[in-house]
Amino acid sequence: PLVLGIETSCDETGVGIVRGQTLLANAVASSLEEHARFGGVVPEVASRAHLEAFIPSLERAARDAGVRLSDIDAVAVTSGPGLAGALLVGVAAAKALALALDRPLYGVNHLAAHVAVDTLEHGPLPQPCVSLLVSGGHSSILLVEDVTQNVQPLGSTIDDAAGEAFDKVARLLGLPFPGGPFIDREAKAGDPAYVTFPRGLTSPRDLERHRFDFSFSGLKTAVARWVETRQRAGESVPVADVAASFQEAVCDVLTRKAVDACRTHGVDDLLIGGGVAANSRLRAMAEERCAAAGIRLRVPRPGLCTDNGAMVAALGAQLVARGLAPSRLDVPADSALPVTTVAV
Ligand code: ATP
Ligand code: MG
Ligand code: FE
């Protein structure tokens, strides 16, 4: 089926088109620059930007795919989780399209879409698989029995998301927003063993209750203290070394817990997604540790890891292929949609 996917849960306005599991178009407009001076995404600004970017993105996707809207067989849209006002723009647009084209509408879960997108690049998803999703808004480990209808949370962050930690530490080091890519770049010239920063929720006691959960706020505070101490002593801050040491701590915990989740659940395939999956150290460390543990690793290319419409279309196409019923036209914009609800 030819499926159109719409994503507006955060700062990316994404419109993607797939035919089955073949990617035809993936138009993404981001309002990130408008948020830069606030150091984080401002919900109201994001919603307005979606409103402005939606029609141009839709037109570009149709042009790139070489299809007319009347050719579309189904419309899929992110129903949640995400920023309520931002989600509303995509959901309203999707309803209008489904109604005007008289096509079925699928309201889907953003996290399941982050998992489903990998089929566009690496073919059918091995099931079950474990998925580590790390972005500016999420850090979770999921047990994916079937991405169209059975996704179970194993753990998630109890405070900051991994991407959020990257962004906050970057700010502290005087690097631009969003900080992830800048820390990644700085770290290449730094010593990852320069400072040993804390690995959150990895002590035996914490593991009892939080085996697959993450905590990054203590790490962020530790970096802030370390930098302050240096500055107060009138010494310069070795940005590359601190960036590398921080990145090492994050990647160590993420990969350690993801591999442990695979082992514990007898799963041989790990999928990493979300914006932080673009991190070069995370990719390298995951490859090493998965190889050592006999786990196959799948990481979509960076353009499919960050928020986009193709991931929503990919999940929509799998729902259609499985013959699952479409959503009703009263699809909600649910900022707190539970991860277990793949489609509304
Ligand atoms: P959501 O959480 O809803 O998916 P988002 O917009 O925060 O929304 P993404 O667009 O997937 O999520 O990811 C953005 C995040 O990824 C930012 O925090 C950014 O710093 C981080 N990021 C991007 N590239 C890298 C990188 N190379 N290394 C580390 N972090 C990165
Ligand atoms: Mg984003
Ligand atoms: Fe996302």
UniProtKB/TrEMBL annotation:
Its EC number is 2.3.1.234. Signal peptide: none annotated. It is an enzyme of class 2 (transferase). Binds 1 Fe(2+) ion per subunit. PROSITE patterns: GLYCOPROTEASE. Residues 23-313 form the Gcp-like domain. It comes from the Bacteria. One of its GO terms (cellular component) is cytoplasm. Keywords: Acyltransferase, Cytoplasm, Iron, Metal-binding, Transferase, tRNA processing. The keyword Protease does not apply. Its cofactor is Fe(2+). The keyword tRNA processing applies. It catalyses: L-threonylcarbamoyladenylate + adenosine(37) in tRNA = N(6)-L-threonylcarbamoyladenosine(37) in tRNA + AMP + H(+). Pfam families: TsaD (PF00814). One of its GO terms (biological process) is tRNA threonylcarbamoyladenosine modification. Required for the formation of a threonylcarbamoyl group on adenosine at position 37 (t(6)A37) in tRNAs that read codons beginning with adenine. Is involved in the transfer of the threonylcarbamoyl moiety of threonylcarbamoyl-AMP (TC-AMP) to the N6 group of A37, together with TsaE and TsaB. TsaD likely plays a direct catalytic role in this reaction. Belongs to the KAE1 / TsaD family. HAMAP family: TsaD (MF_01445). This is tRNA N6-adenosine threonylcarbamoyltransferase. It comes from Thermasporomyces composti.
